[in-house]
Amino acid sequence: MEEGSSRNKENFEMFDVVQENNNEKAGVSADVTEPGRLRSYGDAVFATAATLLIVPVLEFNIKREETLKEALSRHVPKFLVFLGGHLVICSVWELQLVRQKIIGKTDDFLAILNLLSLVFVTFLPFGVRLASNYPDLHTSVSLNFLLLLEKVLELVMLKYASWKKLLSVEYQALDNVEIAKEKETFWYCVLFLFTLLMAWGSVHYMGYVTIALAIFIPYVIAFCRWLWKDSSNSLWKYWGCIERERMETLTDGALVIVGTILVIDFSTDNFPTESAIQKYGLWHCLTDKRYNFQTYLGTYLGVCIIWFTHHSVVRQFEKFTPILVIVNNFFLAFMACIPFLAKLVYNTNTADFITNSTSTLNSTMNHSIVGNPHTYLPTAVAFSSSIILIGSLTNIILLIASFCNIEQKDGKCCEIKCSKISSDKVYLILTAIVVPFLSLITMLVSLTSTSKVTVEWTFKGCMVVAPFVLFFLKCYFGCCRKGSSSSYEQILNADPVEPRSKDNANDDDAKDDHTKDDKEESSLTDRKSVTSYGSLSVRSTSQLNPIELRRIKNKV
């Protein structure tokens, strides 16, 4: 199997060399390069556009004689718009991945077209907010028009890449009949989507149906691919599955913005004025902003903990299936609400401080919270903990999926087998449970207690305890793995087997020859299980027997 994979790799390398020679003979320009950096830039743009949808939600206010629960209920449409817009941008990103998988090389003109298509992506947050604030003024047409222009540019890029022979190696390896059939099917799908956007996008309220279709189209196509796939050499293999590196890039870009967006709060709006510094002094003005610093540091620390947990879970995958992509999209949507949750808890916790303070610095602050903060803080903490709890549960869902090995045959799922629980998996389970468990404790305390002090210190205590718990788990399981690694080294450094006598040599050789095929078959099945869905790319040392360990030692 390894020889076959190495032979395929050599064939692809030879194909690249032949393609480069043909390009040189054909006079292809030297600006043809790999699209790695362009793809990373596009992922960052999509992550930024999807995360900045939370900015309108940050404009939260409470009317007089209104409780916090009533205010949150009044802002539910804003949360739904944010969730829908986030899923729309993620769906557009997934459709863009299909085009990037088909196009293997890029030149300057193709890069310019790609950058132009990203311009319409950056306007999607504006179109989403316009459609949500003014639903009766045919504003959904603007959002559909942006999606339409982005798809038109994708068609131009695909046609240009086909004309300049910049398609991927796998796509060019297909037969001419298969390429013609796949192109015809692909263009029919794109033409249908184009007509749908033109017709429904211009009709009032039907534009929202088009937006909903834009969300679910990638998953419908992936389901059709799973249902009707006949051969592995098909264009449909480009739909649905996403490489782990691309998903990590999108997630990292979104979480970076989530963790640092609150720095704008005390860098622009609440920045100390020159008159306040001259009257009260710089130290007093900075002390007056201590709750802003605490809120920002707490938000950044929470995002770092969530990123670490997500990183530990995601590295168990090689590719993301459509179901896992949906789970990760919901994870990003709930995590993007963290700035709003932090600001909500900050306002409810400092409303009495802002009202009673005599500092002129606070006169410029937005007094969005009125009334008794002692009744608002438990509600705010309970709401924030529930959002974080739901978002962190997606990591547990991903972790459970990574423990299940789905054996495939002819492109369809045949059997789901759960792997054995090892110490590494116990560590991953405990790591993924830390954030949901602490969020659940905070939510229960805030729902059962009306004391502001109890809720506040429980909330802050859980935030401080979380990194120490993760550090303790790493130290504990690190020591356990150190012990197992020492036994592994003992096996590697074991003395060689004593020489056999001549009488027993022939019998032992016959037994070795008899069991050689069985060992090769078992190792082959182990390799197949390693490459199955949701499993690790390298087996752990606990799965290797002493004979294989000695082979490793001899090779070294």
Automatic annotation (TrEMBL):
<comment type="similarity">
    <text>Belongs to the TMEM175 family.</text>
</comment>
<keyword id="KW-0812">Transmembrane</keyword>
<keyword id="KW-0631">Potassium channel</keyword>
<keyword id="KW-0472">Membrane</keyword>
<feature type="transmembrane region" description="Helical">
    <location>
        <begin position="249"/>
        <end position="267"/>
    </location>
</feature>
<feature type="transmembrane region" description="Helical">
    <location>
        <begin position="457"/>
        <end position="477"/>
    </location>
</feature>
<dbReference type="GO" id="GO:0005267">
    <property type="term" value="F:potassium channel activity"/>
</dbReference>
<keyword id="KW-0630">Potassium</keyword>
<feature type="transmembrane region" description="Helical">
    <location>
        <begin position="185"/>
        <end position="203"/>
    </location>
</feature>
<keyword id="KW-1133">Transmembrane helix</keyword>
<feature type="region of interest" description="Disordered">
    <location>
        <begin position="497"/>
        <end position="537"/>
    </location>
</feature>
<dbReference type="GO" id="GO:0015252">
    <property type="term" value="F:proton channel activity"/>
</dbReference>
<keyword id="KW-0633">Potassium transport</keyword>
<dbReference type="InterPro" id="IPR010617">
    <property type="entry name" value="TMEM175-like"/>
</dbReference>
<feature type="transmembrane region" description="Helical">
    <location>
        <begin position="109"/>
        <end position="128"/>
    </location>
</feature>
<feature type="transmembrane region" description="Helical">
    <location>
        <begin position="209"/>
        <end position="228"/>
    </location>
</feature>
<feature type="transmembrane region" description="Helical">
    <location>
        <begin position="291"/>
        <end position="308"/>
    </location>
</feature>
<dbReference type="GO" id="GO:0016020">
    <property type="term" value="C:membrane"/>
</dbReference>
<protein>
    <recommendedName>
        <fullName>Endosomal/lysosomal proton channel TMEM175</fullName>
    </recommendedName>
</protein>
<dbReference type="Pfam" id="PF06736">
    <property type="entry name" value="TMEM175"/>
</dbReference>
<feature type="transmembrane region" description="Helical">
    <location>
        <begin position="380"/>
        <end position="406"/>
    </location>
</feature>
<keyword id="KW-0407">Ion channel</keyword>
<keyword id="KW-0813">Transport</keyword>
<keyword id="KW-0406">Ion transport</keyword>
<feature type="compositionally biased region" description="Basic and acidic residues">
    <location>
        <begin position="511"/>
        <end position="529"/>
    </location>
</feature>
<feature type="transmembrane region" description="Helical">
    <location>
        <begin position="320"/>
        <end position="342"/>
    </location>
</feature>
<feature type="transmembrane region" description="Helical">
    <location>
        <begin position="140"/>
        <end position="158"/>
    </location>
</feature>
<feature type="transmembrane region" description="Helical">
    <location>
        <begin position="426"/>
        <end position="445"/>
    </location>
</feature>
